[in-house]
Design goal:
- The chain is α/β, with parallel strands linked by helices.
- The chain is built from 10 helices and 16 strands.
- The strands form 5 sheets. A 6-stranded mixed beta sheet has the order 8-9-10-11-12-13, with no helix packed on it. Strands 4-5-3-16 form a 4-stranded parallel beta sheet.
- Helix 1 crosses helix 2.
């Protein structure tokens, strides 16, 4: 037996619901909504279970994903490129005005973490159309600045390869890469192809690429990072690998943990969808408290390590949790 109790105006807590009923309710809620509905799951496992259940109750329902980073707070490693690509694909879709009835599936860890603003994501896209002139050098510069990896052969989202008049790009959130075939500076054709067989899957006339990462390495972003880093931590040491890499326009493992320094504004997923209904998983309060404790513990550990570091230790200067 389920019970619905209104705790605050507009907020309803449902108790005693059997497993799977939440997915049925969410599907019904989306059917009545004018646009996306945000669902915040406790963790990745709960989010996956919800997606699986939604496929039963509403198999044609569009589901966008905003997964959490798969690394610890204040880690020395970056999130998995596929996760970063999935996050950016969803943010780009919302920034582009995606307003169909759908589910924005996220987790507590992802929902409580700031992301680049919708305006930044929208301005950072690159559109190419067949039969149109394209600044090829500008496209390559854009790909590099938007955290795409230049490789000899594209394999995973976020890769790009250049071979003469052909540029292969694996866009974030897509299952197949795109091949752009140029004649001079004119885009002669564009097609999706299979990574393994290299066979054409679909001819397309227009492609829109989103950044592959929340970190962008444009000249403006690099200058903003350098200024913010010095203002936050004082003069950078000569042996600070993060500061040195970003100053040279290079990626550095774990640089995402200084995200705020690359952008003039950060937002939450709720800022992207300010009028969307929000459903919260069971035990979300406990999960929120645990997340806050985890972030605080790792931040304090970094501060303690920094205070005890010797002059030859590689510095790690953590951003405040806020």
């Amino acid at each position: 037996m389920k019970h619905a109790v209104e705790i605050t105006p507009g907020a309803i807590t449902v108790c005693g619901a059997p497993e799977g009923w939440d997915a049925k309710y969410l599907a019904e809620l989306v059917a009545k909504a004018a646009g996306p509905v945000i669902h915040v799951a406790r963790d990745d496992a709960r989010a996956a279970a919800m997606v699986e259940a939604l496929a039963v109750f509403a198999p044609s329902l569009p589901v966008l994903h905003l997964p959490a980073w798969d690394c610890l707070p204040y880690d020395r490693v970056s999130p998995n490129p596929e996760i970063a690509a999935q996050r950016m694909a969803s943010l780009a879709a919302l920034a582009d005005g995606f307003d169909r009835p759908s589910v924005m599936m996220t987790t507590l860890s992802a929902a409580t973490q700031l992301v680049p603003s919708s305006a930044t994501v929208a301005e950072s896209s690159f559109i190419a159309e067949a039969s149109q002139q394209i600044d090829i050098d500008g496209l390559i510069t854009w790909l590099t600045g938007m955290a795409f990896n230049r490789v000899s052969t594209v394999i995973e989202p976020g890769d790009f390869a250049v071979r003469g008049g052909i540029i292969d790009i694996f866009p974030p959130g897509e299952t197949h890469p795109v091949r752009l075939d140029f004649f001079g500076d004119v885009l002669e054709s564009a097609r999706r192809f299979d990574v393994e067989s290299q066979r054409t899957l679909e001819q397309i006339t227009r492609v829109e690429f989103a950044p592959a990462s929340e970190i962008i390495l444009t000249e403006t972003a690099i200058t903003r990072f350098r200024t913010g880093y010095r203002e936050s931590f004082g003069a950078a040491r000569l042996d600070d690998p993060l500061y040195a890499a970003v100053s040279e326009g290079r990626k550095h493992q774990g640089m995402e943990h200084w995200l705020a320094l690359f952008h003039d504004r950060l937002e939450t997923i709720f800022d992207y969808l300010p009028h969307a209904p929000v459903t919260l998983d069971a035990q979300i309060d406990e999960a929120l408290n645990a997340r806050a404790e985890t972030v605080a513990d790792h931040y304090n550990a970094r501060l303690e390590a920094l205070s005890m570091a010797g002059k030859h230790d590689v510095p790690y200067r953590p951003m405040a949790p806020e």
